Amino acid sequence: MITRRSLLKASAATGLALAGSRLATPAIAQGAKIRLGYVSPQTGPLAGFAESDDYNIKAFLASDAGKNFEVIVKDSQSNPNRAAEVAKSLIVDDEINLMLVGSTPENTNPVATTCEAEGVPVISTMAPWQPWFIGQQGSPADPSSWKPFNFAYHYFWGLEDIIAVYTGMWKQLSTNGKVGGLFPNDADGNAWGDPKNGLKPGLDAAGFSLADPGRYQNLSDDFTAQVNAFKAANAEIVTGVVIPPDFTTFWNQARQQGFKPKAITVAKAILFPQSVETLGDAGHNLSSEVWWSASHPFKSSVTGESSAEIAADFTAKTGRPWT
Questions:
Q1: CA 160 to CA 163: how far, in whole Å?
Q2: pLDDT band for position 87 (50/70/90)?
Q3: Residues with Cβ < 8 Å from 5, sequence gap 6 or more?
Q4: pTM score > 0.90 for this model?
Q5: What is the mean pLDDT of residues 208-226?
Q6: Which of 148, 168, 252, 318 has its CA 20 to 30 A from that of 25?
Q7: For residue 8, is it left (φ>0), alpha (ψ between -120 and 50) or beta?
Q8: Under DSSP, is residue 94 helix (H, G, I), strand (E, B) or coil?
Q9: Separation in Å, CA 212 to CA 208, 233, 261
Q10: Residue 108's Cα: distance from chain center in Å?
């Protein structure tokens, strides 16, 4: 992981390289606004991640810090192929100066890969660093082959943080420590479920055991195999990284088949109000990690507003709960 100093040093070097590179983004004319490209899942199964995008972008552009910028937004439609396509369009057609991308490896990875190939700087977030970094390697299972990036920069927490948060919650309950894992066949699921670099080593060290029935395809309509595997393992906890529609299907089928774990702690699926709303009463007593809330004791470095003030303003302007 890089430090702030090394990032600044690398950024300076990147700026010099871009200045003399044919792959460089267009020079910024004096007085012209800096063009930021932004890719996020405005629609599709991951749309909950982008619910506050419009609000945040408007707040940024209205601030003193945003007056020198233009933001061009593209919808990945929660599709990695689409994310790569719109990233290329932002680079070639819109001639952006800097790419921004967020919200799960389905978006961050293809955009970062595209920018790396095109020689355009990109900053990404809202995806654990392991799925982001490992998922873009030619041989994800061979750490000795992993290489750094020249134009892609990523900041977010990692699976080590997830393990600490999840096990901290589970230790407040009386369970047998047996955990069932829901891991799809995508960058997130493969990283989380990796026996060496994923959740398993950390859960083992914390006194929990993981039952992993293998990868399933996103948008699956049958989770009977997973439910039966968790029953056979006597799992009293379920975890994983699941897109919202898949978790709804799994949880409905689990309840129908009489599987009632003491704790369900999943990433992605229940992070945002609109995702939980679709579950109705079945959404009660579920748990997840939270990276920001109205009660976090921080202020925006752009507007000076506290977390509580931002949340209240979002609700006042959208009629929606904070997200």
A1: 5
A2: very high
A3: none
A4: no
A5: 96
A6: 148
A7: alpha
A8: coil
A9: 13, 10, 16
A10: 8
Distance CA 41, CA 137 (A): 23
- Structure token pair of residue 29: 């004319």
Strand partners, 38: 73, 100
Q: What is the pLDDT of residue 96?
A: 97
Query: Would you tell me the crossing angle of helices 224-232 and 244-256 to the nearest 10 degrees?
Result: 60
Query: What is the per-residue pLDDT across 17-49, written as a single tens digit (0 to 9) for each?
Result: 444 443 444 556 677 899 999 999 999 999 999
Average pLDDT over every residue of 253-282: 92
Give the per-residue pLDDT at 16: 44
Residue 98 bridge partners (DSSP): 36
Q: What is the mean pLDDT of the chain?
A: 90
Structure tokens at 191: 């990283």
Domains and CATH numbers, the chain: 4-156 (3.40.50.2300), 159-283 (3.40.50.2300)
Q: Tell me how far the alpha carbon of residue 79 is from its chain's centroid.
A: 14
DSSP string, 116-138: HHHT--EEEESS-HHHHHHHTSS
Q: What is the pLDDT of residue 302?
A: 87
Name which of 69, 37, 40, 34 is nearest 53 in CA terms.
40
Query: Which residues, at least 6 apart from 226, have a Cβ–Cβ distance to it below 8 Å?
Result: 180, 182, 213, 216, 250
The DSSP output letter for 97 is S
Burial class from Cβ neighbours inside 10 Å (0-12, 13-18, 19+) for residue 291 reads exposed
pLDDT at 161 (0 to 100): 95
CA distance 61 to 73: 13
Amino acid of residue 228: N
Strands (E), 156-278: 178-182, 209-211, 237-242, 263-268
